[in-house]
């Protein structure tokens, strides 16, 4: 499994979808469409995983948990250049150059501080990749930033966060 080296999510108004592009260390590019409904289902999974990281989970009060999450988020964001241009030099497109419409999400614990995120379309076509704490925060931020460009009016700040059971959402969304 190659590592993600760059992430881009942007709103495409003509499609009324978010376009997720992932570059890997092996110079592969993966492209996905995220619909409003899919984003509304996936974002709480990512937020729940952040709540379950050991540094956050170990806090007793909700105010301490929030303080730790804010501290970690800021520390990670300070070391990332979000303004860097997306590298357009992929050598291969393992799932094709056309974005895959995502319909399934699965997030499962891989190791104590990492998860495997499965992004799949209707025919189980897609990828699995490892999200460490850093990538959890980054993906959460770029999705939230991209949502500001949409007219979806999603309020994910109130997403219900509950203790982690295996985080699985195999429900077909389309």
Write up this protein.
With 174 residues, the protein is an alpha+beta fold. It has one domain (4-169). The protein contains four helices and eight strands; from the N terminus they run βββαααββββαβ. The chain has helices at residues 36-51, 54-57, 62-78, 133-147, and strands spanning 4-12, 17-24, 29-34, 100-101, 104-111, 114-120, 126-132, 168-169. A hairpin with a 2-residue loop joins strand 5 (104-111) and strand 6 (114-120).
Radius of gyration: 16 Å
- What structural class is derived from the secondary structure elements? alpha+beta
3D shape: globular
Compute the number of helices. Answer: 4
What's the overall average pLDDT, rounded?
A: 84
Secondary structure: helix percent: 25-40%
Query: What's the structural domain tally?
Result: 1
Binned strand content: 25-35%
Terminal Cα separation, in Å? 28 Å
SSE order, one letter for each helix or strand: EEEHHHEEEEHE
Largest sheet: 4 strands, mixed
The total count of strands amounts to 8
Taking pLDDT < 50 over at least 5 consecutive residues as the criterion, the unreliable ranges are 160-174
Largest beta sheet: what is the strand line-up?
Answer: 1-2-3-4
